[in-house]
Amino acid sequence: MDALIILFIIAFWLCTLLCLKHFWTFLNEKRGVLEHVSKVTKVDPFEKKEKKKDRRAKLFSRVTKYADDFSDLGQRINFFSENHIVDQWLRLSGNPLKLSVARFQGLKIFLLVVGFISGVLAVVIGLPFSQYMLVFNPIIGYFLPILLIKREVKRRQQLIRKDLPDFMDTVSTSLQAGVSLDQALREVIRHFDGPLREEFSRFNQQIDLGVPREKAYRDLLKRNENEEFQTLVKALIQGMDLGIPIAKTFKIQAEDLRQMRQEQVKELAAKASPKVTLVTTFLIAPVSILMIAGLMILNMLMGDNSIFNYL
């Protein structure tokens, strides 16, 4: 009977792994089909993502509508989240959930209250570690929005840093071919996906609405703290003021950015060596010594030449 139970357990896990494998294959094939359909029908997948993001923002707004009741209290209790800092976080993250500063401040207080209520319920029900949940759940609820928005800021700036060299090379090639800057930006951003496209799409919209070009550049600087991106925008402002060819600006910035990235990789590699040595010294080496010593002791106690054989 035990052997039959073990056989059924092995068969269950085998079937589960096969299901996961086929499901992953299905997702990859579905993604390929959608990309092919988008190319044939000339439907921009970026627009679909934007619509999906808007629907998610509306759903989140409905779920967190009660956070507005705590906005005044949240703006008073602003530990690690002062209003001007929150405003900067929302701008740098692209504000995918369409949050205002007041709603963000109310959201953390709302989650703090929810965490406290869940901790009280855990104590009443008698869940394990409920006394710790009563203390830590409100703290987690308060800091959760702060941690998530800071993570989104970091992720967005990393995506900009990743796509920026290819973007600048492509724009430089288009400019050298005789295309104007505005037209080059409109054509090039269609082949990119992510925050870089969002920023320059907003830039083009501002230009179409008659916003002065220098002000549109300044708005780009306010919405991004990526050092390489800010260097590019400042170079564009300087080139506009001094009459420097824009194509040359993009080309030089792309070369400098790749060189900076190589230096950063070398720096990270140099910093990794002491960390590896530290892990080897304090983790791997002691465990290896303990294993060897344990085998020696077991051999002395239970082996053919055990010390008990001489007693």
TrEMBL record:
Keywords: Cell membrane, Membrane, Transmembrane, Transmembrane helix. It is a multi-pass membrane protein. Residues 167-292 form the Type II secretion system protein GspF domain. Pfam families: T2SSF. GO terms for cellular component: plasma membrane. Its main location: membrane. The chain crosses the membrane at residues 6-24, 107-126, 132-149, 276-302. It is found in: Cell membrane. InterPro entries: T2SS_GspF_dom, T2SS_GspF_sf. The keyword 4Fe-4S does not apply. Gene3D superfamilies: Type II secretion system (T2SS), domain F. This is Type II secretion system protein GspF domain-containing protein.
